[in-house]
UniProtKB/TrEMBL annotation:
One of its GO terms (molecular function) is leucyl-tRNA--protein transferase activity. Keywords: Acyltransferase, Cytoplasm, Transferase. One of its GO terms (biological process) is protein catabolic process. Belongs to the L/F-transferase family. InterPro entries: Acyl_CoA_acyltransferase, Leu/Phe-tRNA_Trfase, Leu/Phe-tRNA_Trfase_C, Leu/Phe-tRNA_Trfase_N. SUPFAM superfamilies: Acyl-CoA N-acyltransferases (Nat). Its main location: cytoplasm. Pfam families: Leu_Phe_trans. This is Leucyl/phenylalanyl-tRNA--protein transferase. Its EC number is 2.3.2.6. GO terms for cellular component: cytoplasm. It is found in: Cytoplasm. PANTHER family: LEUCYL/PHENYLALANYL-TRNA--PROTEIN TRANSFERASE (PTHR30098), LEUCYL_PHENYLALANYL-TRNA--PROTEIN TRANSFERASE (PTHR30098:SF2).
Length: 237
């Protein structure tokens, strides 16, 4: 059953995510701003912004939701060999701005990016507040891949990833999920599925189940050391 699309005013509050449209799937609200207060409120309630240049800010909560259960990431035998022998170094929060720039760069199969300048500015502010984080993959001193997202409670809400070298974005994803699992997280949210994510082990979860998990785990207080800049231990699984 479809509902009306809500027009946001100055209040950072959102309508309940269950009121999102059936078509287009998950469209909940239009307008508002990308202030830190509104973005945090959105993520805490299973909502995220996604729009292109020339459009108003669009807010989404799709059903189903694409997620990685942290023990369900698919690491093939060949990928395990790559992880063991690779000289890549993987870090946390060493180069957030460079990662978001890499994610926003033009791609061969995509005519435009949704990571507009105002989106970059907004997520850089969240990073400065200790809420948005990056995973970097390095070949010597060259940044060859990475991902970024928002982390609140026991959730990491993935936003985008990029790769400039073979398997670099896969390294970022695998290392991140391993790190999240080790630190008692529940899942990595990938928002909307695609063949690449599903090939890595992503699954669809109903919006109702996703929102129930959020309600249960979003207020968990993350340890202060969790997102300090660091180099992650080499893969040993």
């Amino acid at each position: 059953m479809s509902h009306d699309i809500f027009l946001l005013d100055k209040s950072p509050k959102f309508p309940h995510a269950s009121l999102a449209q059936d078509s287009p799937n998950g469209l909940l609200a239009v307008g508002g701003d990308l202030s830190e207060t509104r973005l945090i409120e959105a993520y805490r309630n299973g909502i995220f912004p996604w729009y292109c240049e020339g459009e108003p800010i669009l807010w989404w909560s799709p059903d189903p939701r694409c997620v990685f259960l942290l023990d369900g990431v698919h690491v093939s035998r060949s990928m395990k060999r790559e992880l063991r022998k690779s000289t890549y170094q993987v870090t946390i929060n060493r180069a957030f701005k460079d990662v978001i720039d890499g994610c926003a760069a033009p791609r061969a199969k995509e005519a435009e990016t949704w990571i507009l300048p105002e989106m970059k500015t907004a997520y850089l502010k969240l990073h400065q507040l200790g809420i948005a984080h990056s995973i970097e993959v390095w070949n010597a001193q060259e940044l060859v891949g990475g991902l970024y997202g928002v982390s609140i409670g026991r959730f990491f809400f993935g936003e985008s990833m990029f790769s400039r070298a073979r398997n670099a974005s896969k390294f970022a994803l695998i290392y991140l999920t391993h790190y999240l699992k080790k630190n008692d997280f529940i899942l990595l949210d990938s928002q909307v599925g695609n063949p690449h994510l599903y090939s890595m082990g992503a699954v669809d979860m109903s919006r109702d189940d996703f929102l129930l998990l959020l309600e249960e785990h979003i207020s968990w207080e993350q340890p202060s050391y969790l997102w300090q800049t660091k180099t992650l231990d080499r893969w040993s699984d």
